[in-house]
User: What shape does this take?
Amino acid sequence: MADLTDRQAAAWTSYQRMRVRLSGVLGRELAHATGLSEADFDVLVAVHERPDDTVRALSLRCGLEWEKSRLSHQLRRMEQRGLITRETCEEDSRGSVVRLTERGRELACEAKRHYDDAVRRYVMDSLTPEQVAALAEIADTLLDRIQVTHK
Assistant: This one.
């Protein structure tokens, strides 16, 4: 297999630097504004997007693409902080249902506003509409490739 061209290597390096810096600044701003980690945010928003702010743990794990143990530890910590509750699933007693508490719902909404504002400031306001369309197309193309390759 051939090495990357200089242009490809430079593009990849820039992408990696941007990804790390952007993730860091978004995570720091989220934590400063709400006290939530990125993992907290991911779980709260994923559950809040479901009807009745409720989701089966298995569906949540698959949607987040997390390992079972990672989700279990994260949910335990969030439950201890009063952000979610876990209940036995009526359809399958081996599974559990994750439900937002009132505090979790409030924080999910607050965090989403802060996160969206930061994404707008750091990304969307910096790009032209054509660049936003290209970003979406590139992301979708790569996600499709990864999906096909790792089935």
Notes: The beta strands are 54-56, 84-88, 96-100. The chain has a mean pLDDT of 93.
